[in-house]
Specification:
This protein is mainly alpha-helical and about 170 residues long. It contains five helices and no strands. The longest helix is centred in the middle third of the chain and has 35 residues. About 10% of the residues have low confidence.
Length: about 170
Amino acid sequence: MIAKVGTDIQGGAGTVGSPATEGRPGDSIWVAVVALLPLLFLTASVIAERVVAGPYTRVGKVLALSNFVGVTSQLALAMFTVASLIGAVALWRRNVRTGRWFAKVGSTAAVLAYFLAVVGVLSTAAGPDPAQYEWKPLYSMPAALLAVAPQLLTGIANVYILVRLSRRST
């Protein structure tokens, strides 16, 4: 019996060329785009604050809070963003196990960090009267949702990455 190159005669699970070790097409692109998505949102938010709204308008204060949450979450997640990008490169080079591991670590950390950021901002908006604080960008729950929309969308995108990487190609 002649076997295909890269498989054993039985074609069992875990062998090269089996569905368990082959990545789905586009996994590396999805992982890289989602890893860089927070930087895109942060750049757009900084530009919007500077160009569209001044720092003393209501929209400017919401964008300033969005910038603050974006910068702090990027500082906290810098090493996990790099891990996701390493995973994307490994997936692109067909090193599926290593790529999935790095991408899952980066995406899991991002989901947890963005969940905490969203809950923190929304609990502040829903909590006691923010009038007691000197800097009060959150006048309402919709303003708070607008401020954390990039983190919410990026968290959802990272959940999609985790689901996508958990499925085996067929």
